[in-house]
Amino acid sequence: MLLKLKADLKNLSQIRDFVADTAADLGVAPGSLEDLRLAVDEAVTNIITHGYGGPGDIELELGVEASDLFVRIRDHAESFDPSLAQTTDLRPPGERDNPGGYGLFLMRSVMDEIAHRKIETGNELTMIKRDVVLNKIH
Amino acid sequence: MSEDLQIGVSKEEGDKAVTVMRLKGSLDANTQSELEAKAREAIDSGAEFLLLDMSGVDYLGSAGMRAIHAITNLLSPDDPSMRSAKLKILNPSSAAAKVFKTLGFDSFIDVHQSVDEAIASL
């Protein structure tokens, strides 16, 4: 399932709903849908805020391989490898003023694999959640 | 205000200046500024303590957590040790509680089941 859309902070909720609905159609266990919404929201938010610096075109692809679900997001922004982003500072608010890295930390905590590669037209981020597909419909 | 997040604000009567903010909807990169603005408004109007009712939050992402972090700074800009003490979370939804816990916020911001319980802890 491939969706081409203008990624904008204003349509994050629609993107999350599309991901959850599509994943459910692909046979993903209900208990994993929230994790997928979270990972895709964080990835797309990163693309909008750090990649494009505003709204921009993305391609969002969901698919199944054996019992794994993969999400692939392509953009046309400057190269941005999330794995090179700053490390997460989880100290309490009293000990730091500017929190950072929460998004990537959440993505890593709910997905089993995250890989970035630079493509001719921009970036491709692939996220995999393993053993979540209950029944292969497609 | 976007349709994605509704914020109801009420002041509690009592000895302490406590404001309750009831959130309904999504707390993401699109709506985080609305929460921060409402909190700033409440603090400018005299609120010393904020209770965030998150029972109606159906989505919480990192942007929402950054907003919560920013609000703790607003509540106690001069005394960092008091920042977490002036903000309490009420009844987080399962989606909100999971993110809260994953990022370790539950170890320094109290979570309560009722307004009375939260106020008694202040």
Characteristic terms for this protein:
heterodimer; A: alpha+beta; 5-stranded antiparallel sheet; globular; B: 122 residues; Transcription Regulator spoIIAA; 30% strand
Structural features, described:
With 138 residues, chain A is of the alpha+beta class. Chain A has a single domain, classed as Heat Shock Protein 90 (2-Layer Sandwich), CATH 3.30.565. Helix content of chain A is 31%, strand content 28%. Chain A is built from 3 helices and 5 strands, in the order E-H-H-E-E-H-E-E. Chain A has helices at residues 12-25, 33-52, 102-110, and strands at 2-7, 56-65, 68-75, 113-119, 122-129. In chain A, strands 1-2-3-5-4 form a 5-stranded antiparallel beta sheet. In chain A, a hairpin with a 2-residue loop joins strand 4 (113-119) and strand 5. In chain A, helix 1 (12-25) packs across helix 2. The radius of gyration of chain A is 15 Å and the shape is globular. The relative contact order of chain A is 0.22. The model of chain A has no long low-confidence stretch (mean pLDDT 89). By secondary structure, chain B is of the alpha/beta class. Chain B has one domain (5-120): STAS domain (Transcription Regulator spoIIAA, 2-Layer Sandwich), CATH 3.30.750.24. Helices cover 34% and strands 30% of the residues of chain B. Chain B has 4 helices and 5 strands. Chain B has helices at residues 32-44, 62-75, 94-102, 115-120, and strands at residues 5-12, 18-27, 49-60, 87-90, 111-112. A 5-stranded mixed beta sheet of chain B has the order 1-2-3-4-5. Chain B is globular, with a radius of gyration of 13 Å. Chain B starts with a strand and ends with a helix. At the A-B interface, helix 1, helix 2 and helix 3 of A face helix 2 and helix 3 of B.
